[in-house]
Amino acid sequence: MNALIKLELARALRNRKFLFFSVIYPSIIFLLVASQGGTGATVDNSGLSVAAYVMVSMASFGALTAVLMGNSERIAKERESGWVRQLRLTTLPGRGYVLAKTASAAVVSLPSIVVVFLVAASVKHVRLDAWQWFALTGAIWAGSLVFAALGVAIGYLASGDAVRPITMITYFGLSILGGLWWPSSSFPTWLQDIAKWLPTHAYAALGRAIEQSQAPKAQDIAILVVFFALFVGGAAWLYRKDTLKA
Amino acid sequence: MVVGFDQVSKTYGNVRAVDGLSLRLHPGETVALLGPNGAGKSTTLDLLLGLKQADTGTVSVFGLSPREAIVAGRVGAMLQSGGLMDEVTVAELVKLACQLHPKPYKVTDVLARAGISQIADRKVNKLSGGQSQRVRFALATAGDSDLIVLDEPTTGMDVSARQAFWATMREQADQGRTVLFATHYLEEADAIADRVLVLHRGRLLADGTAAEIKAKAGARRISFDLEGEIDEAPLRALPFLTAATVSKSGSAAGSGQTVRMQSSDADATVHALYGLGLYPRNLEVAGLGLEQAFVAITEAEEAKEATQS
What we know:
heterodimer; B: alpha/beta; 6-stranded mixed beta sheet; 4-stranded antiparallel beta sheet; about 35% helix; elongated
């Protein structure tokens, strides 16, 4: 399986468009959004500067892009082309394909997190303790697994032309409604009530709690765990259905 | 025993793709699987490779389940619909196949044997149809497997590529491997296979050497030219005929016609032909090609089914 992970990774790193959108693009949006707030301003009583607040949003957004897009479209495409069937004629265990895809997506998502942090620290002078930087990286990286599982589920659910629109709607829907682009506190109340139950909202809240040196809220962790179980269960069910059909 | 199918059936909705199929493959055989479209060839191969599960009956490969045989590295396979991972090079993909095989060959050897050393650095998604087929073949032969399964392996290849392909395939068979391939090019089955399986509506219609299949069809071809106007009725009434056609020939004389017929007893038919007082020229009597034998066998089966229902 390591062989497949290596090859998947080599391919991902060769794909400039994918690298741009998952590694560079979040940092660009960070700079654009962070520059709008004044240096002294804080966001919705969090005590965090605009730059620190947006930094977590964009690191989460970058990791989400890498794992969601990396999984869903490729799996749908390779299912259709018959590559998945061909792999089933090798010694690779059944789950090996999905795990290799997720592992390689996770390797790409790490730089997308770190690049946003580097830009935030050097250009926007975000300062945190060393433990906070490490905890942030770990939390955002680990949390991205929730969306990697979602990507796998979409890849096995949709096929052909349908996978791109479904991925895009899910991706932008979760990003915007979860408050990764604008703070969800700027939403109307009814929308805020929806937003706080989204996995992306809980995901970013996790990072912000670390920035505030607080323990993450139990509700946010519970939301992430429930969604993770839901997405993994759905992906496993769809995978088994696809295997029987192929 | 390499492969054993025991009363295997597989149904999709109302369609019986494979219907009580029993067959055995023995070590070292090169076996062709023939059948018209929808005969159940692909389903049979899918069952053999564990890509599909039989509704009833059992499939064993080297005494193991198909999946166990693959994990043990005993089976190499090339699928008709086998897509390839894109955006990687041919060499990278072949290397992956070698790494995944329990008894791998060296990557350079696999590339050379499949005849793709020159395109090793090319991206997989930039290959022609025939080149892709060769890459698939390389994936199927990346290690020391005892059984090689090929589904329509020469689709998309031109004639010379096909010949080169079968030469490499024969090398595999000469090393004592069992080779099973499905094809719709009957001349390939005729030239390469030791044994031919004819599948029709999910059942085994014929099983034997190409010569035996032709004999089973039971007919020989007779052709000759006749001068002048021909009365077709007595020709069609000749004994033992299975088919007869009369056509204007393009001969210089202009008035001659060519008659072609198929007979289950060519000697008796020709004897009766002379009995009509005719003077056939350019008389030829020949065995049926596998293709005509195949058509004859499947048509006879369909006629039988039509009378039964």
